[in-house]
Amino acid sequence: MNKKGFTILEMIIVLSIIALIFLITLPNIQQKQKIIQNKGCDALKEVVNSQILLYELETLNKPGSISDLIGEGYLKDSQRRCPNGAAIEIVNGQAESN
User: Fold this and answer.
1) What would the pLDDT profile of 56-89 be if each residue is shown by its tens digit?
2) What is the predicted pLDDT for the residue at 26?
């Protein structure tokens, strides 16, 4: 009688290999996620800077804070913070994250 299928030992070996691959790649994935979040924050600051410029051109005034841009519809409330959680602020007419 021939049974087709996996034995418990074969399944344990395959699962061990998959777990080992996962443990090797996990730190690399976490490092890349941090880089992506920082790049996302830089991109968001550029968006805010362009909206600061547009605000200045249309109102002939500089925005005092990010709330001015949100209140006037230049930005959404979700653009107040970077993907990494840092708050966007306007310092000397430029977007900065802290």
Assistant:
1) 999 999 999 999 999 999 999 999 999 888 999 9
2) 85
Give me the pLDDT at residue 20, please. Answer: 95
Sole residue written with tokens 């924050």: 41
Model pTM greater than 0.85?
A: no
- Mind giving me the DSSP string for 62-75? --SSHHHHHHTTSS
**DSSP symbols for 11-72:** HHHHHHHHHHHHHHHHHHHHHHHHHHHHHHHHHHHHHHHHHHHHHHHHHSS--SSHHHHHHT
DSSP classification of residue 5: S
Separation CA 27–CA 65 (nearest Å): 38
Cα angle: 54, vertex 86, 39; to 5 degrees = 75
